[in-house]
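We store chain and fold; thus.
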Amino acid sequence: MSVTDNAQAWLEKATEVLNIEIDALVTQRDALDESFVHAVDTILNIEGRLVVLGMGKSGIIAKKIAATFASTGTPAFFVHAAEAQHGDLGMITGSDAVLALSHSGETREVCGLLPEIKRRGAKVIAITGNTSSTLALHADTVLHIPVTREACPLNLAPTASTTATLALGDALAVVILKQRGFKEEDFARVHPAGSLGKKLLRVADVMHQGDELPMVRHDAKLREAIMEISRHRLGITGISDNGTLIGCLSDGDLRRILESGHMDLDAPVRELMHANPMKIESGKLASVALHLMEEQKIMVLFVYEEKPENIVGIVHMHDILQGGI
């Protein structure tokens, strides 16, 4: 039998699976109630960490839920229920909250940990398909997964139920990150090596500041400006008057002066400078700075905070490119 002969049957079965899982998500959405609110409140108010506990397929979902929480502002980690039976239980303290996953609510490895977890004083939030189960009865809050039909034709392999559990975990994490005021820059801080984090880098994250900011006074001589440019190796120096940036002098300007045949090292730098150099606010995305440099065909931007006259740094195109933008 060829692939073509099977194609329609395969597509129909795949459609049926997706429809079952979509129905499970709709049912899960409609089942949201006060217990979800209690779970959010518990997680927001824990002094320790969120411990996500599971076994088997539920353990795989638990690991992903823990990772989502950890990357969105809630300290969290996954504990494998079987490993917890052999020492990892020591990772759980009374200041933590435990998010325990078991669709049956009777998973031996999970339920066997409940008495000790409760003795330690940790709050238990159960995610289960059985509200009368051992897990549910020992939990402080029960989040019900009302899935009765799996996508598996034998109604055995966790499919629709794990999809609903994962989605419910996402709902918890997103509500909590919103309540915490988690922002783009917070996400970037916990994803420093990822492409998403790099896209969210701010100018302030890559700029040179303090002693690294090349600057001379407006009454400095050309020789002083050359030394400042050479010392900082950014190809430019700012020129200030009473702390306010009024101009700049670049190594390109120096080449043009040299080519003119009128190089006077004692000439006042204010007579040679470019007035009103390009600036950017420190809170802008580094990608915005890069676009501005490319558009203006320049290599550096002076950086200000709050007011354009409050110069706090300088950013070079190479700094942004090295940041992976």
DSSP finds 15 helices and 13 strands in the chain. The longest strand covers residues 244-250. Residues 91 and 236 are 54 Å apart (CA to CA).
